[in-house]
Write a structure and sequence with these properties.
The complex is a heterodimer of chains A (744) and B (283). Chain A is of the alpha+beta class and 744 residues long. Helices cover 27% and strands 25% of the residues of chain A. In chain A, the strands form six sheets. In chain A, strands 3-5-1-12-9-10-11 form a seven-stranded mixed β-sheet. In chain A, β18 (465-469), α14 (477-489) and β19 form a beta-alpha-beta unit. Chain B has helices at residues 9-18, 31-36, 72-76, 79-84, 86-93, 98-101, 106-111, 120-125, 222-228, 235-248, 259-282; strands at residues 2-4, 23-25, 44-47, 57-60, 63-67, 129-134, 137-142, 147-149, 152-153, 160-167, 173-180, 191-200, 203-212, 219-220. In chain B, α2 links the parallel β2 (23-25) and β3 (44-47). In chain B, strands 4-5-10-6-7 form a five-stranded antiparallel β-sheet. A four-stranded antiparallel β-sheet of chain B has the order 11-12-13-14. In chain B, strands 1-3-2 form a three-stranded parallel β-sheet, with helices on one face. Chain B folds into two domains: 2-114 and 129-165, Uridine Diphospho-n-acetylenolpyruvylglucosamine Reductase, domain 3 (2-Layer Sandwich), CATH 3.30.465; 174-282, 2-Layer Sandwich (Enolase-like, domain 1). Chain B is of the alpha+beta class and 283 residues long. The chains are: A alpha+beta (744), B alpha+beta (283). Chain A binds chain B through residues 286, 612-615, 652-653, 657, 665-666, 670-671, 673, 675-676, 678-679, 732-734, 737-738, 741, and chain B through 37, 180, 182-188, 190, 254-258, 260-261, 264-265, 268-269. Bound molecules: flavin-adenine dinucleotide. Flavin-adenine dinucleotide is lined by residues 23-31, 33, 48, 68-69, 94-96, 100, 103-105, 107-109, 111-112, 117-118, 160-161, 188 of chain B. The site of flavin-adenine dinucleotide has 30 residues of chain B, from β2, α2, α7 and β10.
Chain lengths: 744, 283
């Protein structure tokens, strides 16, 4: 909880007001997409593939159409065939299969009926004839010579015209001479790692309600990380102009990257168009796990060389990510994890490999956790081989401003060293692990993104402000927008109403992803407020009868040394007179933000391993992260804790378990084991603040980095506690017990 | 599907007899998820929770009588019962969460027929009996004889469990149930082990060892019991218990655990449960 002091002091930024949307959420009034009901609405249900790979020979919907309550049925034939080069091609054939099903649970048809039960019964009555195709489930299998094709539409990207392939991407990166450096190194450690598919596990299943009117316009209410994205993809899949669709964002019950794409909306819009009635479509938990995007699985072979005094000299890495049945989400950025250290020589090869499993989607720092698990495990082994403190070894090699990332770009000002120092000085690191426990640490990195954002700030006649953005609030961003506006305008944070507006009420805004909302949308809010302050001063000058240049905005009021005897003119006083001084006070800012600040984290875990059952207990856990500036420290801590907990689940028990024919065996939270509260200690947090020079308040995104270090942190702690190096995620009790047995 | 809520055992018996394809339920914490995941609906769902006899717990004449439909939370909050049978309480206390336990019953846990049912091994270790009502009246059989395989019961059509009987244990007796789940709660046992021992000073005079989740039904492990009886739970005896329990385990590979893991951990948990039960017996 101790925050390293940010040199700047603010009145509102850095405080912890109760979030503006908190009350409604606590009393159950907040409206999530599935809470919405329209008069006359129908309910829709899917028919999904019982096979992991098959040609659809025929679909007969006639029996289903005649069933009670049925109003409309759609199949892939109701949608245009997008060209294979269209960026939405893959999502369009994922939304409803065309000719071939590519994974178990792939949607084939959907029915809208008066009730959900009628829709489900009718969907089950649709007759489909399949011709089974070979199922490819693993990375080695998919990459083998002569492997059957996972998806005949997939071609390797960025290589020009090519035959269909199981490879999505292949990205080699080289700097220096890794082979020579490896040969010269005093110590070289090489290991192979594997990681199972994991799901984001958001608590709210995908849901939407859509009313396609007689005018051909569709009104969409949906839960997503970006309603402009929903509008664009839905329009593309339907073959409509974007302007035919209006999307109103519902409250969102978690996304973590998984809601940066579309599954339901084109289907519900077409059903609504056909039936002439609003259609509600809500996934079950089972559908979420079977048919929405998990994060990729991976296989990695990493080799790191170092000198005997702990200088990391080279890394040689082969990383293959299992991206599911489509190539459009290819985990090619695993190489990012190398960015934490000054590796003078590197040779990295990243692959995106297809399999007949669900289309993968982003999950917090997509593909970095896998790579960090591997790299940070080996770095830990190097530290213990050299008898160095794991923090000292990392400090010795930590990247600083100007050092090159794997991609060859120099780092801007970053806070890795500060994070390592903060952990070193922490109570946790300074205390001995509890009796029977041992400790592990690891580093994580995420680069973060900027992208497009818009904000409109309206000053109201009573002196309050409405801050309107297009960024769905998945982690407390409304409170952060309000805090930055309060700081700028100098009014109380509760005098500000932050609103996330629909696609027709605010300027275009990209998805809430890449830890960008508080950074980029926040920047737009600040710009709009600054424009308003200029206008407020102009109005005040007019009222005071002084020169505009002599008015300054101080603490929520216009003051002027030339205004003899006059009181400062407050924001409320100016807005009350707006009609007489030139009309409403409002400003809009739109931008494509550059300068997203990378965020680093260092985690530390103390664990106990039951050597007879292989079970790992986490007894103490601390997350340290550079937030740049923590606008609302509670929500920064929340992101750090949330990322840690998801990472702990990934480390210990979460995994997709497929049968040999590609059926997910654990499509529910009973057997897809996300952690429960009693699995966890309090996640202690230390916010480090090394301000990002490219943001008016120094913000770095904090949403993703927190999930990068936990797997290696826990793996390193297990090594310290039980003496076994775990190289396979999850490090579940059977795997740990087996490793202990093998070591004996 | 229809719903019926009889208030007497006779009424329930008649409903079952008159409606082929009907099914009784108590907490419905197994029944509802099973229907949701596509199991065929019964013709009539017969709610047992309005029958007083199935909802109460009594202790007299040297034995306990526990209503088959009573929420397990009522049993685990019964201080007298939990002090006498801490192992049965542990088993019942592992079922789901507080919310689940305010609905779930011992009858449902047993008659769902899952080899992983948490309350069953300790019930068997205490030689609990099930009182069963059917068209021809009532009969009493050992709990160990109710389940014959995963989801399979020895009950005839029209029969249901009314209550359980457990005799007061002899002096210096203790029981314990330990389960292995990857998560600390809200999980299904990969292995469960219940042990009940009676001690005379440092010597064990009677023992029952029962494993859950490692065979088609909960299984007693006579070799482990023999190793305990006459021993002081010394290292050699415990090693025998471990080996016997592992040998008795006949599990499957599934999403919850591997054969290799279950066999190994069955031994470990049997040993740990024995030590804990003996500690309680001596206390
Ligand atoms: C989230 C969750 C977590 C769970 N965790 C656990 C756990 O950790 N451990 C565990 O063992 N179980 C667990 N369960 C399963 C379930 O809660 C238990 O098996 C519970 O004891 C069932 O009791 P019930 O009264 O709800 O049974 P019901 O669902 O009412 O009935 C279950 C079955 O028994 C039959 N039945 C019920 N009563 C009788 C009777 N008197 N005579 C004859 N047949 C009868 C029913 O017809 C049905 O077939 C969990 C369930 C859920 C939903």
């Amino acid at each position: 909880m101790t925050a390293i002091e940010n040199p700047k002091t603010y009145k509102w930024v850095g405080t912890r007001p109760i979030r503006h949307d908190g009350y409604d959420k606590v009393v159950g009034k907040a409206r999530f997409a599935a809470d919405l009901n329209l008069p006359g609405q129908l309910h829709a249900a899917y028919l999904r593939s019982p096979h992991a790979h098959a040609n659809i020979v025929s679909i007969d919907t006639s029996k289903a159409e005649a069933m009670p309550g049925v109003k409309a049925i759609v199949t892939g034939d109701d949608f245009p065939a997008l060209d294979i080069t269209d960026p939405n091609h893959d999502v369009s054939i994922n939304v409803l299969a065309r000719g071939t099903v590519l994974y178990h649970g792939h949607a084939i048809a959907a029915v809208a009926a008066n009730t959900k039960a009628e829709a489900q019964t009718a969907a089950a009555a649709i007759e489909v004839e399949y011709e089974l195709l070979p199922v490819v489930l693993g990375i080695d299998e998919a990459m083998a010579d002569g492997a059957p094709l996972v998806n005949e539409h997939n071609h390797q990207k960025f290589v020009g015209p090519s035959d269909p392939s199981n490879i999505a991407t292949h990205t080699p990166l080289e700097r220096g001479d890794a082979d020579a450096a490896m040969a010269a190194a005093d110590i070289v450690i090489e290991r192979e790692f594997d990681c199972a598919h994991v799901h984001q596990g958001y608590i709210e299943p995908h849901a939407c309600v859509i009313d396609t009117g007689a005018d051909g316009k569709a009104n969409v209410w949906a839960s997503s990380q970006g309603h402009f994205m929903v509008r664009a993809i839905t329009a593309a899949v339907l073959g409509w102009e974007t302007s035919r669709i209006k999307v109103t964002p519902a409250e969102i019950g978690g996304g973590f990257g998984g809601k940066t794409t579309v599954y339901l909306e084109p289907v519900a819009a077409r059903l609504s168009e056909k039936a002439g009635r609003p259609v509600k479509l809500v996934m079950s938990r089972e559908e979420v796990l079977r048919s929405s995007g998990p994060a990729p699985g991976a296989k990695l072979r990493i080799k790191i060389g170092a000198t005997s005094d702990g200088e990391l000299t080279a890394i040689d890495g082969w990383m293959a990510y299992q991206v599911g049945a489509y190539g459009d989400f290819a985990g090619m950025v695993g190489a990012m994890s190398v960015a934490s250290y000054k590796f003078p020589n590197l040779k990295l090869e990243s692959w995106g490999v297809l399999s007949n499993t669900p289309k993968t989607a982003a999950y917090r720092a997509p593909s970095a956790p896998h790579a960090a698990f591997a790299i940070e495990s080996i770095i830990d082994d190097i530290a213990s081989e050299l008898s160095m403190d794991p923090i000292e070894l990392r400090l010795k090699n930590a990247a600083v401003e100007g050092d090159l990332t794997a991609m060859g770009m120099p780092h801007p000002r970053i806070g890795l060293v500060e994070c390592l120092e903060a952990l070193k000085a922490s109570d946790h690191y300074q205390s001995e692990p509890a009796e029977g426990a041992a400790r592990g640490v690891a580093v994580g990195f995420w680069f973060n993104i900027g992208e497009q954002s818009s904000a409109t700030v309206n000053l109201n006649e009573d002196g309050t402000a409405t801050v309107i953005t297009g960024s769905p609030d998945i982690g407390g961003s409304r409170a952060s927008m309000a805090l930055m506006a309060a700081e700028e305008l100098g009014i109380d944070v509760y005098s500000i109403t932050p609103v996330v507006a629909d696609t027709e009420a605010v300027g275009f805004t990209d998805v809430t992803e890449g830890s960008r909302a508080t950074f980029a949308t926040g920047k737009a809010v600040v710009e709009a407020c600054r424009e308003l302050k200029v206008e407020l001063c102009r109005r005040a000058a007019q009222t005071m009868g002084v020169d505009e240049a002599e008015v300054e905005w101080v603490d929520g009021a216009a003051v002027s040394p030339s205004h003899v005897g006059g009181e400062p003119l407050t924001l409320a006083a100016i807005t009350a007179q707006a009609k007489r001084t030139g009309g409403p006070l409002t400003a809009t800012a739109s931008l494509n933000a550059a300068g997203a600040g990378p965020s680093f984290a260092v985690h530390c875990a103390d664990v106990k391993v039951d050597e007879e059952t292989g079970q790992t207990e986490i007894v103490r856990y601390t997350a340290v992260q550079d937030a740049g500036t923590a606008i609302h420290p509670s929500y920064v801590e929340g992101q750090m804790q949330g990322g840690s907990v998801q990472g702990i689940g990934w480390a210990l028990n979460e995994e997709y378990i497929f049968s040999s024919d590609g059926v997910l065996m654990n499509p529910g939270f009973l057997d897809y084991r996300i952690p429960v509260a009693s699995d966890l200690p309090m996640i202690e947090t230390i916010i480090v603040e090394v301000p990002n020079p490219s943001h008016p308040y120094g913000v770095r995104g904090v949403g993703e980095t927190g999930i990068v270090p936990p797997m290696a942190t826990i793996g390193n702690a297990i090594k310290a506690a039980a003496g076994v190096r775990m190289t396979s995620l999850p490090m579940s009790p059977p795997k740990v017990l087996k490793a202990l047995g093998d070591a004996r | 599907m229809e719903y019926a809520a009889p208030t007497t055992v006779d009424e329930a018996r008649t409903l079952l007899a008159d409606n082929p394809g009907s099914r009784v339920f108590a907490g419905a914490t197994d029944v509802v998820p099973q229907m949701r995941s596509g199991r065929p609906e019964p013709s009539v769902l017969i709610d047992l929770k309005l029958i007083d006899r199935l909802m109460s717990v009594t202790h007299d004449n040297g034995h306990w009588t526990i209503g088959a439909a009573m929420p397990t939370s009522e049993l685990t909050s019964n201080g007298e019962f939990t002090s006498v049978f801490p192992g049965i309480s542990e088993g019942a206390g592992w079922i789901g969460s507080d919310q689940i336990q305010n609905r779930s019953s011992l009858g449902g846990n047993l008659c769902n027929g899952s080899p992983a049912a948490d309350s069953v091994p300790a019930m068997i270790a205490s030689e609990a009996r099930a009182v069963i009502a059917g068209t021809d009246g009532e009969r009493t059989i050992p709990v160990a004889d109710v389940v014959t395989g995963p989801g399979q019961l020895s009950l005839a059509d029209g029969e249901f469990v009314v209550e359980f009987e457990i005799d007061d244990p002899p002096a210096n007796t203790g029981d314990a149930y330990i389960r292995m789940t990857p998560r600390t709660e809200m999980d299904i046992a990969i292995v469960g082990a219940a042990v009940r021992v009676t001690m005379n000073g440092d010597t064990c005079t009677d023992a029952r060892v029962v494993l859950g989740a490692v065979a088609p039904t909960a299984v007693r492990v006579p070799d482990a019991e023999a190793a305990l009886i006459g021993s002081s739970l010394d290292e050699a005896a415990l090693a025998e218990v471990t080996a016997a329990a592992s040998a008795a385990a006949n599990p499957i590979n599934d999403k919850r655990g591997t054969i290799e893991y279950r066999v190994q951990v069955a031994g470990v948990l049997a040993k740990r449960a024995a030590v804990l039960a003996a500690e309680r017996a001596r206390a």
